[in-house]
Specification:
Blueprint: E1 14-19, E2 22-27, E3 31-32, H1 37-50, E4 55-59, E5 65-66, H2 68-83, E6 88-91, H3 95-103, E7 111-113, H4 116-126
Parallel strand pairs: 2-4, 3-5, 4-6, 6-7
Antiparallel strand pairs: 1-2
Helix pairs in contact: 1-2
Amino acid sequence: MLNKSLSDDTPSIMTAEINHNTIVVRVHTMQIDEGNRLLFEEELFCSARTNSPLSLVLDLEQVTFFSSSSLSSLVRLRLECIERSQKVILVGLSHNVKEVFRITKLNKSFESFVDVASAMQWLEANV
C-alpha cells in the first residue's frame, strides 16, 4: 500500500495501492470541501505523478459532497494525466455526486463505473 500523508501532522484522507497496471486511490472522507481540498489535491496529484503512466482509478464511494473548487481539482488532474497518456476513472459515485457531475457536464469528461472491479474490467479490455 502506498499510503502517505504529505505532512507529518496531517492525517491522510486517502490510500493508494497498485493493482495490476493500475493505481487505485480510495478517498476516506465524506466531503471534499475548502477544509480538505488542498490535501485532497496534493495527495491525488502525488499518487498520479508518482505512478505515471499507470491508469488511475479514483474510488469516491465514501464521498457525498464535492465543492466547486474540488471539482476543478479533478479537471486539472484529468488534464495533467491526459498529457502523460494516463487514464483517470471514477468509481463509486453517490447519487448526489453523480448529479453534480451531470449538471456540470463533467460526466462527459470522465469514465465512471459502479465499483473498482468494473473499472478494472473496462481497463483490461480497453487499454
